[in-house]
């Protein structure tokens, strides 16, 4: 949920607010660290490392947002791309650890590796072509588009003629983003039911 809310901010639906920071601290951060401790109590080393690390990832991400407001120097494109690249590298090693566990976990961690590295590439280059790169690699991409027609995505279709792995979400009328968010939420729930325990990771334009 924290990831979806942050990505909605990145897509321009609302500004950075205390809601996102609170979700990052308490739900994405502290809650996952607690789950990591619970996995440690059960003797699950992989679960301990994964949950604790991603909980701390959210806490550090909140720090990157909040600390500059306290007078610390903000991150730049180079440092942020390095940050995301290293998290992608860490996730890649976790992915290797899933090869002897379950297909579902392999899908989750492989998708996270791609997501982290695409975000790192986006920060490093400032390019808006990350979604196109993901599509060219055949990675699942969900795009929320404006109502107006655009030659790359054409009109009145929810797939892409260029990228078979794309799924398009369009508002039924200009400015009706609430309907788009509802469609995405329903699709996420449907995927969770069909692919459990695998999860779908979305890349948005």
User: What is the strand content?
Assistant: under 5%
What structural class should be given to the helix and strand makeup?
A: mainly alpha
Please work out how many helical segments DSSP would assign: 7
**Biggest sheet architecture:** 2 strands, parallel
Q: What gap, in angstroms, lies between the N and C termini?
A: 18 Å
Helix fraction by DSSP (H/I, runs of at least 4): 55-70%
The topology string of helices and strands comes to HHHHHHEEH
Mean pLDDT: 78
Radius of gyration computed on alpha carbons: 18 Å
Order of strands, main sheet, comes to: 1-2
Give the overall shape.
globular
Please provide the count of β strands: 2
Low-confidence stretches: 196-205
Précis, in short:
The chain has 205 residues and is mainly alpha-helical. It contains seven helices and two strands.
Brief descriptors of the model:
2 strands, disordered C terminus, two-stranded parallel sheet, mainly alpha, 205 residues, globular
Structure description:
Helix content is 61%, strand content 4%. The protein is globular and about 50 Å long. The C terminus is likely disordered.
Write the layout of secondary structure elements.
Elements: H1 2-10, H2 18-41, H3 45-66, H4 77-98, H5 103-125, H6 130-136, E1 141-144, E2 166-169, H7 177-195
Parallel strand pairs: 1-2
Helix pairs in contact: 1-2, 2-3, 4-5
